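Final report, Chapter 2: Outcomes

The project's central promise was a pipeline that accepts a single protein chain and returns its three-dimensional structure in a standardized token representation, suitable for archiving and comparison. That pipeline is now operational. To close this chapter, we reproduce one record exactly as it appears in the project archive, with the input sequence first and the structure output second.
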Amino acid sequence: MNKKIVLPVLLVAVVVAVWFLFFNNKKQPVIDQKPEAIKVSKHSETFNQSMQTVMNAYFDMTKGFVNWDTAVVAKTSAALKQALDNLKIGEIQKDTAIYESALGPLDNIKVELTGLIGDTSLARKREDFNMVSQNLYDFLRTIRYDASKLYFQECPMAFDDEKPGNWLSTEVESDNPYLGTKHPKYGSSMLSCGEPKDTLNFIIADSMKK
């Protein structure tokens, strides 16, 4: 090969190599990712687990009322009773004031639930469900339940189209357990009737956790 051709080719190769080595070191942008805050609870894990069992049974029972399913209501109300009997309430005894204040609504829940299980008509069971929900709301508010955010819903026309009924949900929009899917007058047209009357949010975010 002619030397006049080889020398320019080598020069170009050297220039390209130098450019790649010294001028093409693009640094990847550093993304500042702040750690997500970790939720912490003032209650013990044992109590929270037993309380979650209670809430799961309650939400399942709510779905039974939404669907006018007496078999589901019967099954889930029994499950709720067992969960309440197994609730590790002693775990919050360290705070005497809260513990003693919580016993009243907790006992009321059990009494109303016993009535719910014993009643034969779905209409009467809904009345008991309303009282269970109100006392459960009082209990959760008293102990400052912080495992999740809850909404205390109200339907203004739950009973005889003029008396309100309440229930708890994890979402702002929640299916109505008093009107439900098979209401003889409204059918499913009023399934979403109701709105939050109060919000329970005692969740503590530990921003110091990394």
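Archive annotation: The first helix runs from residue 3 to 22.
This record, like all others produced under the grant, will remain available to the consortium after the project formally closes.
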